[in-house]
Amino acid sequence: MLGGDGFFNRTNISLFLSFLKIGAILYGSGYVLFAFLDSELVAHGIITRQQLVDAIAVGQFTPGPVFSSVTFIGFQVNGVNGAIISTIGIFLPSFVFVALLNPLVSKMRGSKLFGAFLNAVNVASIALIVVVCYQLGKDSINNWRSVLIAIVSICILLKFPQINSAFIVLGGSIAGYLLLLI
């Protein structure tokens, strides 16, 4: 932690700038956020990889966007002030970009060159999501219990595709707890 007192201390300024940068360049699914957070926060020793995985899990479990993971990270680093400033930092660029670019996007989408660029960005975003899913799986599915839960969860999803994912998460949590008792 960088330290300092008050709302505008070094820690909060660092959090704000990190999340402002990520929010400005993040495109695609919230899962892409994992890769950016890993390189920005874990690589610089602000949080551990396990804290990042926990934060993404919290973002998955809570209603709303996976960006709520950022609020959780901000709280982990600097309490309520860190949570507030991190949330503002991650969301501010999208509000600014939407306000500035919304009138132009439909016109730009009509351009062959810009349309091809947006399609390429979408493909790159999907590729990054695949890499993040692999990394999360590698970090999370690391013992027989988690392998068993993953296999059962996949089987349930394939057999009952209409099932609400919250039930899968809840069932996996209960199974994880029960398997720890063994």
Features:
182 residues; mainly alpha; 2 domains
Secondary structure tally, helices? 7
User: On the 0-100 scale, what is the average pLDDT?
Assistant: 86
Structural class: mainly alpha
Which descriptor suits the 3D outline? globular
Order of helices and strands: HHHHHHH
Oligomer: single chain
Summarize the structure.
The chain is mainly alpha-helical and 182 residues long. Helices cover 79% and strands 0% of the residues.
Task: Give a structural overview.
By secondary structure, this protein is mainly α. It contains seven helices and no strands. The protein has two domains: 130 residues, no CATH class; 42 residues. Helix 1 runs parallel beside helix 4 and helix 3 packs across helix 4. The longest helix is centred in the middle third of the chain and has 42 residues. The model has no long low-confidence stretch (mean pLDDT 86).
Task: Please give the structural blueprint.
Elements: H1 10-25, H2 32-42, H3 49-61, H4 68-109, H5 112-140, H6 144-159, H7 165-180
Helix pairs in contact: 1-4, 2-3, 3-4, 6-7
